[in-house]
TrEMBL record:
InterPro entries (UniProt xref): ATPase_YchF/OLA1, Beta-grasp_dom_sf, G_OBG, GTP-bd, P-loop_NTPase, TGS-like, TGS-like_dom_sf, YchF_C
Protein name per the record: Obg-like ATPase homolog
GO MF terms held by the record: ATP binding; ATP hydrolysis activity; GTP binding
Chain ranges passing through the membrane: none
Listed Pfam families: MMR_HSR1, YchF-GTPase_C
CC per GO annotation: cytoplasm
NCBIfam families referenced in this protein's UniProt entry, alphabetically: redox-regulated ATPase YchF
Length: 405
Protein backbone atom coordinates (compact mmCIF):
# COMPACT_ATOMS: atom_id res chain seq x y z
CA UNK A 1 0.00 0.00 0.00
CA UNK A 2 1.51 3.41 -0.98
CA UNK A 3 2.11 6.02 1.76
CA UNK A 4 -0.85 8.24 2.77
CA UNK A 5 0.82 11.34 1.32
CA UNK A 6 1.14 9.62 -2.07
CA UNK A 7 -2.53 8.60 -1.98
CA UNK A 8 -3.70 12.13 -1.22
CA UNK A 9 -1.60 13.70 -3.96
CA UNK A 10 -2.55 11.03 -6.47
CA UNK A 11 -6.30 11.34 -6.08
CA UNK A 12 -6.01 15.12 -6.29
CA UNK A 13 -4.17 14.88 -9.62
CA UNK A 14 -6.07 12.08 -11.40
CA UNK A 15 -3.14 9.70 -10.85
CA UNK A 16 -3.28 6.11 -9.78
CA UNK A 17 -4.09 5.71 -6.08
CA UNK A 18 -6.04 2.50 -6.44
CA UNK A 19 -5.25 -0.95 -7.76
CA UNK A 20 -2.09 -3.00 -7.92
CA UNK A 21 1.17 -2.01 -6.26
CA UNK A 22 3.50 -3.20 -9.00
CA UNK A 23 6.08 -1.78 -11.37
CA UNK A 24 4.73 -3.37 -14.59
CA UNK A 25 1.39 -1.59 -14.79
CA UNK A 26 -0.56 -1.26 -18.05
CA UNK A 27 -2.32 1.51 -19.95
CA UNK A 28 -5.27 0.52 -22.13
CA UNK A 29 -6.53 2.34 -25.25
CA UNK A 30 -10.28 2.85 -24.73
CA UNK A 31 -13.00 4.53 -26.78
CA UNK A 32 -15.76 4.05 -29.31
CA UNK A 33 -15.09 2.05 -32.50
CA UNK A 34 -13.20 3.81 -35.32
CA UNK A 35 -11.70 6.64 -33.28
CA UNK A 36 -8.05 5.69 -33.94
CA UNK A 37 -7.23 3.38 -31.01
CA UNK A 38 -5.61 0.58 -32.99
CA UNK A 39 -3.78 2.98 -35.29
CA UNK A 40 -2.37 4.78 -32.25
CA UNK A 41 -1.42 1.46 -30.66
CA UNK A 42 0.43 0.44 -33.83
CA UNK A 43 2.34 3.71 -33.92
CA UNK A 44 3.26 3.65 -30.23
CA UNK A 45 4.41 0.04 -30.18
CA UNK A 46 5.59 -0.34 -33.82
CA UNK A 47 3.23 -3.30 -34.15
CA UNK A 48 0.85 -4.25 -36.94
CA UNK A 49 -2.43 -4.85 -35.13
CA UNK A 50 -5.46 -4.77 -37.42
CA UNK A 51 -6.80 -1.23 -37.84
CA UNK A 52 -9.60 -1.44 -40.37
CA UNK A 53 -12.46 0.93 -41.12
CA UNK A 54 -15.31 -1.00 -39.52
CA UNK A 55 -16.60 -1.41 -35.96
CA UNK A 56 -15.19 -4.15 -33.70
CA UNK A 57 -12.17 -4.81 -35.94
CA UNK A 58 -10.28 -5.47 -32.69
CA UNK A 59 -11.88 -8.33 -30.71
CA UNK A 60 -9.21 -9.82 -28.49
CA UNK A 61 -7.02 -7.14 -26.89
CA UNK A 62 -3.56 -6.65 -28.39
CA UNK A 63 -0.71 -6.11 -25.95
CA UNK A 64 2.78 -4.75 -26.47
CA UNK A 65 5.25 -2.39 -24.87
CA UNK A 66 6.79 0.86 -25.99
CA UNK A 67 9.98 2.63 -24.93
CA UNK A 68 9.60 5.58 -22.56
CA UNK A 69 11.78 8.27 -24.18
CA UNK A 70 14.16 10.01 -21.78
CA UNK A 71 17.14 12.26 -22.58
CA UNK A 72 18.64 11.33 -19.18
CA UNK A 73 18.88 7.70 -20.24
CA UNK A 74 20.33 8.75 -23.62
CA UNK A 75 22.97 10.85 -21.85
CA UNK A 76 24.06 7.98 -19.58
CA UNK A 77 24.26 5.59 -22.56
CA UNK A 78 26.42 8.08 -24.42
CA UNK A 79 28.77 8.46 -21.45
CA UNK A 80 29.27 4.76 -20.76
CA UNK A 81 28.32 3.20 -24.11
CA UNK A 82 27.91 -0.25 -22.50
CA UNK A 83 27.06 -3.41 -24.46
CA UNK A 84 23.72 -3.77 -22.61
CA UNK A 85 21.22 -0.89 -22.62
CA UNK A 86 17.70 -1.23 -21.19
CA UNK A 87 15.32 1.76 -21.29
CA UNK A 88 12.05 1.91 -19.37
CA UNK A 89 9.00 0.42 -21.08
CA UNK A 90 5.29 1.13 -20.86
CA UNK A 91 2.91 -1.80 -21.29
CA UNK A 92 0.01 -0.85 -23.61
CA UNK A 93 -3.18 -2.75 -24.44
CA UNK A 94 -5.42 -2.05 -27.44
CA UNK A 95 -9.00 -2.70 -26.30
CA UNK A 96 -11.90 -3.05 -28.73
CA UNK A 97 -14.44 -0.25 -29.09
CA UNK A 98 -17.30 0.20 -26.62
CA UNK A 99 -20.76 1.38 -27.60
CA UNK A 100 -23.86 2.52 -25.76
CA UNK A 101 -25.39 -0.44 -23.97
CA UNK A 102 -22.09 -2.34 -23.65
CA UNK A 103 -22.67 -2.78 -19.89
CA UNK A 104 -25.86 -4.67 -20.80
CA UNK A 105 -24.21 -6.76 -23.52
CA UNK A 106 -24.58 -4.51 -26.58
CA UNK A 107 -21.88 -4.76 -29.24
CA UNK A 108 -19.23 -7.07 -27.83
CA UNK A 109 -20.32 -5.98 -24.36
CA UNK A 110 -19.05 -7.29 -21.08
CA UNK A 111 -16.07 -9.14 -22.54
CA UNK A 112 -14.53 -5.80 -23.51
CA UNK A 113 -15.38 -4.25 -20.15
CA UNK A 114 -13.49 -7.09 -18.47
CA UNK A 115 -10.48 -6.23 -20.65
CA UNK A 116 -10.59 -2.70 -19.23
CA UNK A 117 -10.65 -4.18 -15.73
CA UNK A 118 -7.33 -5.87 -16.52
CA UNK A 119 -5.43 -2.61 -17.17
CA UNK A 120 -4.34 0.00 -14.62
CA UNK A 121 -4.98 3.24 -16.49
CA UNK A 122 -6.75 4.39 -19.64
CA UNK A 123 -5.93 6.33 -22.75
CA UNK A 124 -9.43 7.50 -23.66
CA UNK A 125 -9.16 8.14 -27.42
CA UNK A 126 -11.69 10.68 -28.68
CA UNK A 127 -12.44 11.36 -32.33
CA UNK A 128 -12.47 15.06 -33.21
CA UNK A 129 -12.62 15.04 -37.00
CA UNK A 130 -15.28 14.73 -39.70
CA UNK A 131 -14.61 12.20 -42.46
CA UNK A 132 -17.38 10.48 -44.39
CA UNK A 133 -14.96 7.73 -45.39
CA UNK A 134 -14.33 6.72 -41.76
CA UNK A 135 -17.47 5.22 -40.26
CA UNK A 136 -18.79 6.49 -36.92
CA UNK A 137 -20.86 4.10 -34.84
CA UNK A 138 -23.45 6.86 -34.21
CA UNK A 139 -23.34 8.23 -37.78
CA UNK A 140 -22.15 11.66 -36.64
CA UNK A 141 -19.17 13.14 -34.83
CA UNK A 142 -19.86 14.57 -31.37
CA UNK A 143 -16.93 14.15 -28.93
CA UNK A 144 -18.93 15.27 -25.88
CA UNK A 145 -21.66 12.73 -26.59
CA UNK A 146 -18.98 10.07 -27.06
CA UNK A 147 -17.32 10.99 -23.76
CA UNK A 148 -20.68 10.77 -22.00
CA UNK A 149 -21.37 7.38 -23.57
CA UNK A 150 -18.10 5.78 -22.49
CA UNK A 151 -18.22 7.20 -18.96
CA UNK A 152 -21.82 6.10 -18.51
CA UNK A 153 -21.06 2.55 -19.62
CA UNK A 154 -18.07 2.28 -17.32
CA UNK A 155 -20.06 3.59 -14.36
CA UNK A 156 -22.87 1.10 -15.06
CA UNK A 157 -20.36 -1.75 -15.18
CA UNK A 158 -18.91 -0.61 -11.85
CA UNK A 159 -22.38 -0.59 -10.31
CA UNK A 160 -22.69 -4.23 -11.33
CA UNK A 161 -19.25 -5.03 -9.87
CA UNK A 162 -20.18 -3.20 -6.67
CA UNK A 163 -23.43 -5.10 -6.23
CA UNK A 164 -21.67 -8.43 -6.72
CA UNK A 165 -19.07 -7.45 -4.11
CA UNK A 166 -21.77 -6.53 -1.59
CA UNK A 167 -23.54 -9.87 -2.15
CA UNK A 168 -20.24 -11.71 -1.70
CA UNK A 169 -19.48 -9.86 1.55
CA UNK A 170 -22.95 -10.62 2.89
CA UNK A 171 -22.43 -14.29 2.06
CA UNK A 172 -19.21 -14.30 4.08
CA UNK A 173 -21.05 -12.87 7.08
CA UNK A 174 -23.86 -15.45 6.77
CA UNK A 175 -21.33 -18.27 6.49
CA UNK A 176 -19.84 -17.09 9.77
CA UNK A 177 -23.25 -17.71 11.36
CA UNK A 178 -23.84 -14.05 11.97
CA UNK A 179 -21.01 -14.03 14.47
CA UNK A 180 -19.30 -11.20 12.60
CA UNK A 181 -20.96 -8.10 11.22
CA UNK A 182 -19.76 -6.27 8.15
CA UNK A 183 -17.56 -3.35 9.12
CA UNK A 184 -19.21 0.09 9.10
CA UNK A 185 -16.38 1.22 6.82
CA UNK A 186 -17.53 -1.26 4.17
CA UNK A 187 -21.13 0.01 4.32
CA UNK A 188 -20.10 3.65 4.29
CA UNK A 189 -17.59 3.25 1.45
CA UNK A 190 -19.85 1.19 -0.82
CA UNK A 191 -22.65 3.68 -0.15
CA UNK A 192 -20.45 6.58 -1.27
CA UNK A 193 -19.37 4.64 -4.35
CA UNK A 194 -22.95 3.81 -5.32
CA UNK A 195 -24.05 7.44 -4.97
CA UNK A 196 -21.26 8.55 -7.33
CA UNK A 197 -21.83 5.85 -9.94
CA UNK A 198 -25.58 6.42 -10.08
CA UNK A 199 -24.79 9.98 -11.18
CA UNK A 200 -22.39 8.66 -13.87
CA UNK A 201 -19.45 10.00 -11.84
CA UNK A 202 -16.28 7.87 -11.69
CA UNK A 203 -14.98 6.65 -8.35
CA UNK A 204 -11.61 8.35 -8.89
CA UNK A 205 -13.37 11.73 -8.65
CA UNK A 206 -14.59 11.08 -5.11
CA UNK A 207 -12.87 12.21 -1.93
CA UNK A 208 -11.36 9.19 -0.21
CA UNK A 209 -9.40 8.52 2.94
CA UNK A 210 -6.45 6.13 2.84
CA UNK A 211 -8.57 3.57 4.77
CA UNK A 212 -11.31 3.76 2.14
CA UNK A 213 -8.80 3.40 -0.69
CA UNK A 214 -7.27 0.38 1.03
CA UNK A 215 -10.73 -1.20 1.32
CA UNK A 216 -11.55 -0.49 -2.33
CA UNK A 217 -8.24 -2.04 -3.41
CA UNK A 218 -8.80 -5.12 -1.26
CA UNK A 219 -12.50 -5.80 -1.86
CA UNK A 220 -13.33 -4.29 -5.26
CA UNK A 221 -11.94 -4.11 -8.79
CA UNK A 222 -13.60 -1.01 -10.17
CA UNK A 223 -12.98 0.36 -13.64
CA UNK A 224 -13.62 4.01 -12.77
CA UNK A 225 -10.85 4.07 -10.16
CA UNK A 226 -8.34 4.01 -13.00
CA UNK A 227 -6.63 7.28 -14.03
CA UNK A 228 -7.37 8.63 -17.50
CA UNK A 229 -5.54 10.59 -20.18
CA UNK A 230 -7.79 11.97 -22.92
CA UNK A 231 -6.23 11.70 -26.38
CA UNK A 232 -8.04 13.88 -28.91
CA UNK A 233 -7.48 12.62 -32.47
CA UNK A 234 -7.40 15.53 -34.96
CA UNK A 235 -6.98 15.78 -38.70
CA UNK A 236 -3.45 16.62 -39.82
CA UNK A 237 -4.69 20.05 -40.94
CA UNK A 238 -6.10 20.87 -37.50
CA UNK A 239 -3.06 19.43 -35.74
CA UNK A 240 -0.64 21.52 -37.79
CA UNK A 241 -2.57 24.71 -37.14
CA UNK A 242 -3.19 23.68 -33.50
CA UNK A 243 -6.89 24.46 -33.80
CA UNK A 244 -10.06 22.36 -33.81
CA UNK A 245 -13.71 23.28 -33.34
CA UNK A 246 -14.15 20.34 -30.94
CA UNK A 247 -11.18 20.94 -28.59
CA UNK A 248 -12.83 23.62 -26.46
CA UNK A 249 -15.88 21.42 -25.84
CA UNK A 250 -13.72 18.45 -24.91
CA UNK A 251 -11.72 20.60 -22.46
CA UNK A 252 -14.92 21.87 -20.84
CA UNK A 253 -16.22 18.30 -20.44
CA UNK A 254 -12.97 17.02 -18.93
CA UNK A 255 -12.76 19.87 -16.41
CA UNK A 256 -16.43 19.42 -15.49
CA UNK A 257 -15.75 15.73 -14.82
CA UNK A 258 -12.82 16.01 -12.44
CA UNK A 259 -9.95 16.32 -14.92
CA UNK A 260 -7.60 19.17 -15.81
CA UNK A 261 -6.17 20.60 -18.99
CA UNK A 262 -3.02 18.53 -18.37
CA UNK A 263 -5.09 15.36 -18.82
CA UNK A 264 -5.79 16.25 -22.48
CA UNK A 265 -3.31 15.58 -25.29
CA UNK A 266 -4.35 16.60 -28.82
CA UNK A 267 -2.64 14.46 -31.45
CA UNK A 268 -3.20 13.27 -35.02
CA UNK A 269 -3.01 9.69 -36.26
CA UNK A 270 -2.81 11.12 -39.77
CA UNK A 271 0.23 13.24 -38.85
CA UNK A 272 1.96 10.40 -36.98
CA UNK A 273 1.42 7.97 -39.87
CA UNK A 274 2.96 10.47 -42.29
CA UNK A 275 5.96 10.85 -39.99
CA UNK A 276 6.26 7.06 -39.61
CA UNK A 277 6.23 6.62 -43.40
CA UNK A 278 9.45 8.67 -43.55
CA UNK A 279 11.27 6.64 -40.87
CA UNK A 280 13.70 5.02 -43.34
CA UNK A 281 14.83 8.41 -44.62
CA UNK A 282 15.87 10.41 -41.53
CA UNK A 283 16.93 13.42 -43.60
CA UNK A 284 13.52 13.64 -45.29
CA UNK A 285 11.79 13.13 -41.95
CA UNK A 286 13.78 15.96 -40.34
CA UNK A 287 13.18 18.23 -43.33
CA UNK A 288 9.42 17.65 -43.11
CA UNK A 289 9.36 18.32 -39.36
CA UNK A 290 11.38 21.50 -39.90
CA UNK A 291 8.86 22.55 -42.52
CA UNK A 292 5.69 21.92 -40.49
CA UNK A 293 7.25 23.11 -37.19
CA UNK A 294 5.06 20.77 -35.12
CA UNK A 295 6.54 17.80 -33.23
CA UNK A 296 5.25 14.27 -32.78
CA UNK A 297 3.16 13.64 -29.66
CA UNK A 298 3.90 9.91 -29.34
CA UNK A 299 6.72 10.46 -26.85
CA UNK A 300 4.56 12.74 -24.71
CA UNK A 301 1.67 10.25 -24.80
CA UNK A 302 3.97 7.45 -23.63
CA UNK A 303 5.68 9.49 -20.92
CA UNK A 304 2.42 10.90 -19.58
CA UNK A 305 0.90 7.41 -19.47
CA UNK A 306 3.88 6.09 -17.50
CA UNK A 307 3.67 9.00 -15.06
CA UNK A 308 -0.12 8.77 -14.72
CA UNK A 309 0.27 5.21 -13.43
CA UNK A 310 2.32 6.56 -10.54
CA UNK A 311 5.53 5.08 -11.94
CA UNK A 312 9.07 6.41 -12.03
CA UNK A 313 12.47 4.75 -12.38
CA UNK A 314 16.01 4.85 -11.13
CA UNK A 315 19.19 4.04 -13.06
CA UNK A 316 21.99 1.56 -12.60
CA UNK A 317 25.01 2.60 -14.63
CA UNK A 318 28.37 1.05 -15.39
CA UNK A 319 30.70 -0.41 -17.98
CA UNK A 320 28.51 -3.43 -18.64
CA UNK A 321 25.00 -2.00 -18.52
CA UNK A 322 22.79 1.07 -18.32
CA UNK A 323 19.32 0.16 -17.12
CA UNK A 324 16.10 1.83 -15.98
CA UNK A 325 14.32 0.11 -13.09
CA UNK A 326 10.63 1.09 -12.83
CA UNK A 327 9.19 1.54 -9.33
CA UNK A 328 6.11 3.14 -7.81
CA UNK A 329 6.52 6.69 -6.53
CA UNK A 330 7.16 6.62 -2.81
CA UNK A 331 9.14 3.35 -2.89
CA UNK A 332 11.77 3.01 -0.15
CA UNK A 333 15.35 1.93 -0.88
CA UNK A 334 15.13 -1.77 0.14
CA UNK A 335 12.03 -2.35 -1.99
CA UNK A 336 13.57 -0.41 -4.90
CA UNK A 337 16.65 -2.61 -4.68
CA UNK A 338 14.38 -5.67 -4.56
CA UNK A 339 13.15 -4.89 -8.07
CA UNK A 340 16.52 -6.15 -9.28
CA UNK A 341 16.52 -9.27 -7.11
CA UNK A 342 14.80 -10.36 -3.91
CA UNK A 343 18.19 -10.89 -2.22
CA UNK A 344 18.91 -7.16 -2.63
CA UNK A 345 15.90 -6.38 -0.45
CA UNK A 346 16.34 -9.20 2.07
CA UNK A 347 20.01 -8.41 2.68
CA UNK A 348 19.83 -4.65 2.15
CA UNK A 349 22.64 -2.70 3.82
CA UNK A 350 22.63 0.71 2.14
CA UNK A 351 22.42 2.52 -1.16
CA UNK A 352 25.08 4.65 -2.83
CA UNK A 353 22.97 7.37 -4.46
CA UNK A 354 23.65 10.16 -6.94
CA UNK A 355 20.85 12.38 -8.25
CA UNK A 356 20.91 12.35 -12.05
CA UNK A 357 21.12 16.14 -12.32
CA UNK A 358 24.11 16.26 -9.97
CA UNK A 359 25.92 13.66 -12.08
CA UNK A 360 25.03 15.47 -15.30
CA UNK A 361 26.25 18.82 -14.01
CA UNK A 362 29.45 17.59 -12.35
CA UNK A 363 30.74 14.61 -14.36
CA UNK A 364 32.41 16.73 -17.04
CA UNK A 365 31.51 14.18 -19.68
CA UNK A 366 33.39 11.39 -17.89
CA UNK A 367 32.36 8.16 -16.17
CA UNK A 368 34.13 8.78 -12.87
CA UNK A 369 32.21 9.55 -9.69
CA UNK A 370 35.26 11.40 -8.29
CA UNK A 371 34.03 14.93 -9.11
CA UNK A 372 30.58 14.11 -7.70
CA UNK A 373 32.16 12.81 -4.46
CA UNK A 374 34.39 15.88 -4.28
CA UNK A 375 31.31 18.09 -4.47
CA UNK A 376 29.65 16.16 -1.66
CA UNK A 377 26.83 14.90 -3.88
CA UNK A 378 27.60 11.18 -3.55
CA UNK A 379 25.35 9.98 -0.72
CA UNK A 380 24.92 6.90 1.43
CA UNK A 381 21.25 6.22 2.16
CA UNK A 382 19.62 3.68 4.46
CA UNK A 383 16.36 1.77 4.66
CA UNK A 384 14.22 4.85 5.18
CA UNK A 385 15.30 6.61 1.98
CA UNK A 386 12.56 7.26 -0.57
CA UNK A 387 14.10 6.70 -4.00
CA UNK A 388 13.65 9.66 -6.33
CA UNK A 389 12.98 9.63 -10.06
CA UNK A 390 16.27 9.53 -11.95
CA UNK A 391 18.50 8.55 -9.03
CA UNK A 392 21.63 6.64 -10.06
CA UNK A 393 21.88 3.83 -7.52
CA UNK A 394 24.37 1.21 -6.43
CA UNK A 395 23.06 -1.18 -3.78
CA UNK A 396 25.05 -2.89 -1.09
CA UNK A 397 23.55 -6.05 0.39
CA UNK A 398 24.55 -9.23 2.13
CA UNK A 399 22.53 -12.44 2.29
CA UNK A 400 24.05 -15.12 4.49
CA UNK A 401 24.34 -18.55 2.86
CA UNK A 402 22.02 -21.25 4.27
CA UNK A 403 23.43 -23.09 7.27
CA UNK A 404 24.80 -26.56 6.61
CA UNK A 405 22.86 -29.33 8.31
Amino acid sequence: MPPKKILTEATANNCVAFGRVRSNLKMGCVGLPNVGKSSLFNLMTEQSAAAENYPFCTIEPNEARCVVPDPRYDFLCKIWNPPSQYPAFLQVTDIAGLIKGASEGAGLGNAFLSHIQAVDGMYHVVRAFDNDEVLHVDDSVDPVRDLDTIQSELCKKDLDILQRAIVAEEAIVRKAGGKFKMLPLFYETTGKIKALLEQDKPVRDGEWTSAEIELINEKLSLITTKPVIYLVNLTMKDYLRQKCKYLGKVAEWVKAHGGTGADIIPFSVEFEEKLWSLREDPAAQKAWLDEVKVPSKLGKITTEGFTKLGLQYYFTAGEKEIRCWPIKRGTLAPQAAGVIHGDFERGFIKGEIVAYQDFHDLCGGGKSMAPIKAAGKYRMEGKGYEVQDGDICHWQFNVAPPKKK
